[in-house]
Specification:
Distance between the termini: 50 Å
Helix content: under 10%
Number of strands: 40
Radius of gyration: 33 Å
Number of helices: 4
Largest sheet: 5 strands, antiparallel
CATH class of the largest domain: Mainly Beta
Number of domains: 5
């Protein structure tokens, strides 16, 4: 579930493409949107289409060989339009129906994206100012931006199913990763240990056999791509020994059943700028690259204008014959191909409308302690967001460990200093609003959390207890908590005087009891606090049951058992019930119930000693697989 604040603006977008073996004629009808849930996880039925709100696309027809993009801003509450949330919405779940009443059609959904666009929508009206101010820098910025964006590293959404070689079952020369084949010879290919958290990498070792064209390729499995799309070829390698010379990346396209439709591009990779915008080392002859150094390439190209293109085959070639057959050992960490983003496509040629971008060139600077440092800064203002990025590079062009902003004081704000950081102390001048974030005080073993809706059911605004993940915080495992509905609980020792005695039981019996036993008294008034809490939950595979009755009565006696004097009774008349329906064993739901209460009784009976006894005299609570219950007594005397 995705938590939402209906007073804010959310941009919801998606992209869908379709293809039919029959060619023109059949269409795919799609519905894309979300279902809304209230604070307790119950689905909201708003009439018309029931619980479904097709905000992004409703009955949209996608024709053969067509791709459509959808986008909408959703804000506010109401049932008078797709651009609003149903009244009472606190959470949403994205949903899509593809190929509705369609036959002989394949449909691909690129994803459903939900973004908080409140600030970016407000900022878009100011973007024209940035555009006019940046006009003088457009020529230089466009050239720098093209180089920067075209080599940007975006390691995700690859159309190849095993781009990182994480599925590589067999070690030893001649063995290949799952989904990859061989063209020519595989004698120099083997599995090696990966880097950056990846288990494996692919290694070309042709140091003893230069001249052998060794290549691997993917099975044709790329989908969601069509003629004239912009694509980004991605390659991360480390030169272990030898030269990069001869390394090639070949792309071939085919139709939906594997028929060859030609080669799109054959990249002489070492002759192209890497993701940092630099060419690998070249001695003017055959030596390219530096052994021990890692290289990343991100190369933008366009799919040929052939309407039958559906699939792609990648040839990763260690020694491409017309680039040179040279001795080398290469570790390949990533080989991918993905559809370019809208920003990459747009910025490839011109600076986008309503946006200004300025990139400064790298420069080498000598610091006061004689070390060399380089810097690269990029400032961008546009309708989506405004940003300042800084990149620290060493003398070889590799990223360094960190960027530090240091000054006597750093301030954020317009005229007034809204946020000031000085001498290790942060000062906020004004109100501090926490909407979706959390404030966590962590002692190492325990923690106190303040935030807007967290815990196992998003029920807390404040919680203290043992350190754990926030989604595991419940009423049962907290020492103290405050819920969004106003319920509160404190399970520690309450001190109202010098003498205090406290006891509690965690028995889950419907007739649980607890006694303080006899303790000494000064004969003064004793303030006795009686508390009770109950929680239970259960997993369900179908619809939610009806909201149950939740009542309990707990009696407090002076004495050590029920033969003593009955002083008062704590009556629990309601609790909190939440339920999410299940959709079978692979998507179960569940219900959760919580009830609690306490009272204070002043005992003026005096005496040199006293004892108290509490018991559950009646309980009508739902009992699930997991039950927690506490009955507690705290006596304090001034």
């Amino acid at each position: 579930m995705i938590p939402v604040d209906t007073s804010r603006k959310y941009r919801m977008r998606s992209q869908v493409s379709a293809w039919s073996p029959a060619g023109a004629g059949p269409t795919s009808t799609v519905y894309i949107g979300f279902v809304a849930l209230d604070a307790n996880g119950n689905y909201l039925d708003h009439g018309g289409y029931g619980t479904y709100r097709y905000a992004i696309a409703v009955a949209s027809a996608i024709a053969h060989n067509e791709r459509q993009s959808f986008s909408i801003i959703v804000t506010g509450e109401g049932n008078d339009g797709w651009g609003k949330f149903p009244p009472g919405t606190k959470y949403i779940r994205p949903m899509a129906i593809l190929n509705y009443y369609s036959t002989n059609t394949y449909t691909w959904l690129s994803g459903i994206f939900v973004e908080d666009a409140t600030e970016s929508e407000a900022a878009s009206s100011q973007a024209s100012i940035a555009t006019s101010q940046a006009a003088v820098a457009t020529d230089r910025a466009a050239a720098a931006q093209t180089s920067f964006v075209n080599t940007a590293s975006i390691q995700g959404n690859s159309l190849l199913k095993n781009s990182a070689f994480v599925d590589y079952p067999v070690a030893g020369f001649g063995n290949l990763p799952t989904g990859w084949g061989v063209y020519g010879s595989a004698a120099g290919i083997q599995r090696v240990a990966g880097v950056n958290g990846r288990p494996y990498a692919l290694e070309f070792d042709v140091t003893s056999n230069p001249g052998a064209q060794t290549s691997v390729y993917t099975s044709p499995n790329a989908v969601g791509m069509k003629a004239l799309d912009y694509m980004v070829a991605e390659l991360d390698v480390t030169l272990v020994a030898g030269t990069l010379g001869g390394l090639g990346y070949l792309i071939r396209y085919s139709d939906g059943v594997g028929n060859y439709l030609g080669e799109a591009f054959d990249f002489n990779v070492p002759a192209m700028a890497d993701a940092a915008g630099a060419l690998p080392y070249w001695d003017g002859a055959n030596q390219r690259g530096e052994p021990g150094k890692s290289y990343k390439w991100r190369i933008l190209h366009r799919v040929p204008n052939n309407p039958n293109i559906r699939q792609v085959t990648i040839y990763l070639v260690a020694d491409q014959y017309f680039f040179g057959w040279l001795s080398k050992k290469l570790r390949v960490d990533w080989c991918g191909l993905r559809v370019a983003t809208e920003t990459e496509v747009r910025d490839k040629t011109v600076l986008g409308p309503m946006e200004a971008t300025v990139s400064s060139h790298s420069a080498t600077l000598a610091t006061h302690d004689a070390r060399l440092a380089s810097w690269l800064q990029r400032t961008s203002a546009g309708p989506a967001r405004a940003e300042i990025e800084m990149f620290a590079l060493d003398s070889s062009g590799n990223p360094t460990s960190e960027i530090n902003l240091r000054a006597r004081a750093i301030s954020l704000g317009d005229v007034d200093e809204v946020l000031s950081v000085q001498d290790g102390r942060a000062t906020v001048s004004g109100d501090l609003y926490v909407q979706q974030g959390r404030i966590v005080v962590d002692t190492g073993t325990h923690m106190k959390v303040i935030g807007n809706g967290f815990g196992s059911a998003g029920q807390f605004v404040e919680w203290f207890g043992p350190k754990m993940a926030l989604n595991l915080c419940t009423e049962a495992n907290g020492n103290a908590w405050l819920k969004k509905n106003g319920d509160a609980y404190f399970g520690g020792t309450l001190s109202a005087g010098i003498l205090k005695n406290a006891v509690q039981t965690t028995s889950t019996s419907a007739a649980a009891s607890v006694t303080t036993g006899a303790f000494g008294s000064n004969g003064g008034a004793r303030v006795v606090t009686l508390s009770y809490s109950y929680s239970s939950n259960e997993t369900i595979l179908g619809a939610c049951p009806a909201s149950p009755t939740m009542t309990a009565s707990i009696q407090l006696y002076r004495g050590t058992d029920a033969t003593g004097v009955l002083l008062t009774t704590l009556n629990i008349t309601n609790g909190t019930w939440s339920c999410s329906p299940g959709f079978g064993e692979f998507e179960p739901g569940g219900w959760n119930v919580d009830a609690s209460g306490s009272l204070t009784y002043t005992d003026n009976s005096g005496g040199a000693s006293a004892s108290y006894f509490a018991r559950i005299s009646a309980r009508n609570m739902p009992v699930g697989t997991n039950v927690t219950q506490r009955v507690g007594i705290v006596s304090t005397e001034a």
